[in-house]
Amino acid sequence: MHAIPFYPLLESAIIGYVALVNAVSFVLMLIGYFALKKESDPFSASEIEALLKSPLVPSVSILAPAHNEEATIRDSVRAMLRLRHPKHEVIVVNDGSKDNTLHALIDEFRLYRSSRVPLGDIPTRRVRGVYESRDPIPLVVIDKENGGKADALNCGINYSRHDLFAAVDADSIIERDALLQISRPFLEREAETMAVGGMVRVVNDCVIEHGSVLAVRTPRNVLARLQIVEYLRAFLAGRTALSFFNSLLVISGAFGVFRRSVVVAIGGYRCDTVGEDMELVVRLHRYCREHKIPCRIAFISDSVCWTEVPESLRVLRRQRVRWQRGCLESILFHKRLIGNWRFGSVGLLGVPYFVTCEILGPLIELIGYLITCFGLITGSLGASTALLFFGVSALFGFLLSIGSVLLEELTICKYPNSADFLRLAMVALLENFGYRQITLVWRLQGILQVVLKKQRSWGEMERRGFQRVRATAPHSTHAHSEEPTEARKPESEHQAV
Description:
Layout lengths: L6 H32 L6 H7 L8 E7 L6 H9 L6 E8 L5 H9 L1 E3 L13 E7 L5 E6 L4 H11 L4 E5 L4 E2 L3 H5 L1 H5 L4 E10 L4 E3 L2 E5 L5 H23 L10 E5 H6 L10 H15 L5 E12 L5 H21 L10 H35 L4 H29 L6 H13 L4 H17 L25 E2 L19
Parallel strand pairs: 1-2, 1-6, 2-5, 8-12
Antiparallel strand pairs: 3-4, 4-5, 6-11, 7-12, 8-11, 9-10, 10-13
Helix pairs in contact: 1-8, 1-12, 1-13, 8-13, 8-14, 10-11, 11-12, 11-15, 12-13, 12-15, 13-14
C-alpha cells in the first residue's frame, strides 16, 4: 500500500503532545513532593487533645446521603458519631430509599419526629420528615423524596447548623481524627479557606475490625492494585501540586469539607451533572474571584478516607466514563475561565491543565495509538516512528506511576512493607500495556456522551463489602486510623469516589 505523506508529521505532532502532557504531569509530581515535605506535620496526640477542648475549632456538620442502605447504615452512623471533634453533628439524608433504611435508623437511635426547620433555601425535592434522637447524640435524619446525591447534599446543607459541612459517602471509612486534621487550613488561614479535600485511599483487602482499618495491605485483585497507583498519582502528585498553586479544581465526593455560608451563597450543588463535586469547586473559585473574595481551596494528605474500589472491568468502566463526563461538563459550564487571567492561577493553570491533560490528552493519545497501528498496517509509518510513540507513552507512564509510588514511600509511607512496594512497582509497569489503553477508550466514551448529549446515568456500583476483608493476611502494615465506619458500599447513585 502507498504511504501517506503527512503521516510521519502527524505522528510526530502527537508524540510531541503526549510528551508535553506527561512532562507537565512529571513536573507537577516533583512539585507535589516538595509541597508534601513542606506541608505541616499532622496534629500530634497532645495537639489533638488540646483541640478537642478548644473553642477555636470550627464546628462541622457531616452530611451523609443514604439510599437503600438498610444493612449498613447503623454501623456507618455509629462510626461517624465516634469521630473525634469538639463540635460536630451527623446529618443523614435518606434519599427516597425503597428499603427499611429510615426505620432501621429510627429503631436503632430512638428517633422522634422533630420540628427542626431549614436555615437554607436551596431548592430540593420534598422533605417528608425530620428526625432527631431522644438520646444525647448529635444526630439528625432527614427523610426526603429521591433526587440524587447532589439534591440530598443540598437538603443536608439547608438543615445544617454549623460553620462547615463535610460531604461524605456514608459507607466509606473515615479515620477517627480526620475531621480535626482536615480542619487545619481553616484554623491557619481562616479568612480565605473555603474548602479542603482529604486523601482517599483504597481499602480493598485491608484488615478491618469493628469499622477500623487495623492494617493496610495491597489487594489480591490486580485491578484494585492498579487503582492504588492511580489514586497515589492523582492525589499525592496532581492534587498536592495544584493545591500548592491554589488551582485545585477537584475535591473528592467521598470526603471534603466546605464553608457552608459560601456554598449557600452560590446555590449549593448542581443537580444536572454527574460531576457535581468538581463543578462545585470550580464554581467556588469563580464566585470568589468575581466578587473579589479571598479564596483558598486546599488538599490535606494526612486526613484520610478509605473507600472500596471496583474489582471488575464492567463496574470500573461505568465509574471512569462518569468521571470523564463530569470533568468535561464542569469545564464546559465554566469555559469562561479557560486562560482568563482575571481568575488568577485557576484560569491560567488549573482549568488549562484539565483541558490539556485530562480532556484533550487522553483523546489525542488514543488517536495516536489508532493512527500508529493503521500506519504500520498500511506502510505509511515506519517501525522506528511507531516504536518511538509506544516508547514515549510507556516510559512516561511508568515514570509517573513509579514516581507516585516512591512519593508515597518517601513522605507518608502507608505501605512500608517491601513486598507491598514491589507489588505496586510491578503494576506501575504493567498498567502501560493494556490497562492504560482501555481507560483511554472509557474516557473517550465519557466525552462522547457529553457531545451526543446522552442522558445522565450513574449506574449501579457493585461492591464486595468490608465483611470479606476481615481476616489478617501476610504483608500487612498497621494503619493510623482507630474507629471509622464498617460498611458495605451501596448499589445506588451515591458512589462518587
